[in-house]
Amino acid sequence: MSRGNTAMARKSSKDILREFCYDPLIYSYDGSLEGLFSAIFESYSRHENPAEVCPAANLQTSLLYQVVDVETNMDYAVRVRDKLLSCFGEQEYERIKMAYLSDDPVKDTVICHYVRHLMRAGKAGMYDAAHPDTAAFAMVWRPVFNERHRMLQFLRFSLMEGGVYFARINPNANVVPLIMEHFKNRFNDQPFLIYDEVHHIAGLYDLHDVQLISTDEINLPDLADAEREWREMWRTFYDAICNQQRLNPALRRSFMPKRLWGNLTELNRVDPVPLGTQQATS
Amino acid sequence: MDTIEKLAILTDAAKFDVACTSSGVDRDAQLGRLGTTTCAGICHSFAADGRCITLLKVLQTNVCVYDCSYCVNRRSNDIPRAAFQPRELAELTMGFYRRNYIEGLFVSSGVIGSPDRSMELMLETVRILRDELGFNGYIHAKAIPGASPELITCMGLLVDRMSVNVELPSQRSLDLLAPDKSPYSVLEPMGLIAQGIQCNQQERALSRRLRERFAPAGQSTQLIVGASPEDDYQILSLSAALYRRFELKRVFYSAYLPVNDDPLLPDKGCLAPLDREHRLYQADWLTRFYGFEVEELISPQDPWLDTLLDPKAGWALAHLDQFPVEINRAPYEMLLRVPGLGVTGAKRICQARRQRTLRPESLRKLGLSLKRMQYFITCDGSYKAPLPFDGEFIRKQLQKEGSKANKAARGGGKRPLDGQLSLIDSGDEGRQRAFAAQEARLQRLEAARPRLEAARSQLEAARRSEAS
Lengths: 282, 468
Ligand code: SF4
Prior knowledge:
The complex is a heterodimer. By secondary structure, chain A is α/β, with parallel strands linked by helices. Chain A is built from ten helices and eight strands.
């Protein structure tokens, strides 16, 4: 999804004020999911409809708006969660959580407005895709959903010394929490570590549990002995399977965006190769 | 020869099989086994030709005693030959799988000695993977025409999908171009697999505890397009029959890439009829998911799909009296027939219009592109496309759109120009020329027949004397 296509571009804050009579308020919260749910709870208890919701870290003050600091309150957050679960079901709740992992700067506002819309309209609100709030929510949620799938496709593990499989990814949404389950099921007998270098989150599976760790750096052991050979084999396969008579780089780019190539074994070939094998060029 | 060299040779030999899916079966994790499968499948990479890589697609061996004219691996070609040891290939699959390179294995094989021998080798690979290495991911295996039923049944119980390639769309072409295979030997294993799947389903319905599954992701086949002179009508009718008769999951179409110099085949210089392949796929989808009948898209009188316009738009333009349809009221089946609107889009519209009347601007909110469909719809009574509402005009507009999109998809507008089979030139003249070329090919094929018959009877005689 291109940045220009965010919900922000479609709804300027003035439009929001004019069309939907929001109160000229910005709720500022601590950036956590609990915080966001607390903000939603507050909007009901204070009988307000904030024009924007924003993590305190990204707050930009404006003359038009008054800023309200919302404190994170576990009780409130749990009540919002339970309400969503009981009224709209597990699936919808997961969708909201997924949207929260987006990198889109307006996700907080969009989620708040969407949840308020759901409360007003009931389940019908979920299906009312032409409603501005539902449509804006879909525009935030769908890219996260797609990015999650891209990581299932394009994540590449390397075996490290000591037997841990390691993968580095650079997704455009904070999807590590969304992919751990898939890999845990699939590779249940191999310990692995996934590091998201954009959001600085590491997901670790140690054959029993999954842990998420927020960290700026990770210390890695060396690649296992045979690992370079495995990479070479994969690259050999990748080159050989292509039909030279049908080359179509544009089509490949559309399925496999260039921004991900750096972490793709078959397309980024800079890692040193052992003597004797020739380095292939793409 | 080490594994990496074999891999290069046996991948190169397998790349002309276009089947590439890991879909059709959901299997959760099992304790002590490695891997899962998902119903939608996952593409793990895309080659420089833009095609998806989801399975490790290799041949067990490219040694082959047959001599099919269209195939790189035929015995008369002088190419490097190699064969994987079953264990070697099984371990390679595991290594790739653990690194999230692939969803599983797609194994096929040349005929090394006899069809049974090839089947046995593949079967051993698959058995090691499943039983010894505990591999729970996706496996697609080829059944070799002429292999014994027992081997095919054993294979079916271990793999997710099986396929037998029909390759050539008519008996006559098969006779001429694949002299060692009889059509019967292709259809027989297909029937066996279909039967196996059916019996297994019935058994499972009777006994919940039966865990064994026979090719749960079904079977597929491949047809080569452009190696032989069949027209699109014949090809589509054949696939329709195959879908019906053998309950195939997929028919793949493969534009023939000239790999051999053979008087019966298009010259090596020719480019593959990629446009034609693309349109055949579109027509195939229309018949499977959009409620179209083959006869609606194409007829014996006009047996070629338009390469400049997608078949759905072609149908719509021929039935302009049924358009424009009102987005808010048209039944789902009719929405599916609107050019530019897919299954997801049609479903989204149906869901959203239950809540409110859709206005022209709502369609964008649903994330739908109006570019093509605008000519065929009204939205809350208003028609937003450029006027006039006229077949010729709309065709021009759509082709403009289409060529832009095509250019992008082809990376710079290089079109394949196949003098014999593609129908690139618009208008009747191009069509006439293509027909003439077809006719010439047909005659050449007929003329070659006696020579081939003779060669074949010699071969038969040789075999008989060998056997006795
Ligand atoms: S039997 Fe298969 S591998 Fe052998 S020549 Fe024919 S198509 Fe090629």
